[in-house]
Amino acid sequence: MDRSPSAAHRGASLAPGGDRRQTRAVPTPNLALLSAVVLVAFTAEATAGFGSTVLSLTLGSLFAPIPVLLPIVVPLNVGLTVYLVARHAHHVAWRLLWMRVLPLMAAGGAIGYAVGRGLDAAALRRVLGALVVAVSARELWRLARPGAPPRPLPPAATAACIGAAGVVHGMLATGGPLLVYALGRADLSKGALRSTLAVLWLVLNAALLAAFIADGRLGGAQLRAVAALVPALAVAIALGERVHRRIPERPFRAVVFGLLLVAGGLSLA
């Protein structure tokens, strides 16, 4: 995600709804740079099912403020996930999504929101980042061993990881990496993993998009920037679909956990 959905919320915390001074489009000279960022980040998500938001915000923040980028990146992510869900709905693990992922994420989110006030968010993010780096590195090591088949987590462990992702998301709005780890270790094909994550990101980012519209952070200037980036998004979708079709299951898992390793490392920065 999957952001994963996680980085977008973190950036949102930097831009209170009442502060409209930064709600302008990225300056035109930077749209060329942002197009390159979108091409890289959204190709990753079109391939693996997550990563566009965290990569876009991390790379884009080198030349534009995160509060400026968020109302531009989130609509693009909604566009990508709408495409993935519409095109590959037959791959979605609907039972897993409705019976386990959404209920456990919702319950964990409520707990995390209730207990998270007053905690040191920066320190907790670093702890989460270290955990994600550790488990991702372990999975990459397992995948690198010749003849070692990827083993799914036991159902109880999967449920615990999903619930923990909800708790972290409620506290820090950065539960995406833990959720991706849990589903990456589930008994899902590469198509099912990507499509199931796409549904979840679509729900979360559609809510965020509605909030941007309601508080005035998504206006004409931002929509013009989004429109200018649509060609980069279209190319990213085409590239991601091509890579996703061609990559075998085992290397696909390596891509997933490699992206998680990057996301965890960025949380440590």
Structural overview:
The protein has 269 residues and is mostly helical. It has one domain. Helix content is 76%, strand content 0%. The protein has eleven helices and no strands. Helix 4 packs across helix 9 and helix 8 packs antiparallel against helix 11. The longest helix has 27 residues, at 220-246. Residues 1-29 have low confidence and may be disordered.
Largest sheet: none
Report the strand count.
Answer: 0
Class of secondary structure makeup: mainly alpha
User: What share of residues are in beta strands?
Assistant: under 5%
Number of helices: 11
Rg (CA only): 17 Å
Mean pLDDT: 83
Shape, principal axes of CA atoms: globular
Counted up, domains total 1
Spans where pLDDT lies below 50 across 5 or more residues: 1-29
Quick summary:
The protein has 269 residues and is mainly α. The chain has helices at 6-12, 28-48, 52-60, 66-88, 94-115, 121-144, 155-172, 176-184, 190-214, 220-246, 249-268.
